[in-house]
Design goal:
By secondary structure, this protein is of the alpha+beta class. About 40% of the residues lie in helices and about 25% in strands.
Length: about 100
């Protein structure tokens, strides 16, 4: 695996239930990509071989939130990219903490 991103999508809505509904739609989109992902309490991490593919997913997450009904959306993104090697996987980072 050459890249991973962590994205926190923050829909601009006042109602907590609406916020959860929109974030759930974004997570459903991430799931539909077929890439390995991990949902945490603040962000979702996605792993892939292609930096460009991950950046497209990041952009689409915001579009999904807007299409789901929020007037605007903010996103915080972390990127790890190593085109010549590997990056640490989700499993290597968190599995030991969930046993």
């Amino acid at each position: 695996m050459k890249a991973s991103v962590a994205i926190q999508v923050l829909p601009s809505v006042k109602d907590e239930d609406e916020l959860i509904r929109i974030v759930d739609e974004v997570i459903a989109y991430i799931k539909s990509t077929g890439l390995n992902y991990y949902v945490g309490p603040f962000e979702t991490t996605i792993e892939g071989e292609s930096y460009d593919e991950l950046m497209e997913i990041v952009a689409n997450c915001q579009k999904v939130a807007i299409k789901a009904g929020c007037p605007s959306v903010s996103a915080y993104v972390k990127v790890v990219y190593n085109p010549e090697g590997e990056v640490l996987t989700i499993d290597k980072k968190v599995t030991k903490h969930h046993q």
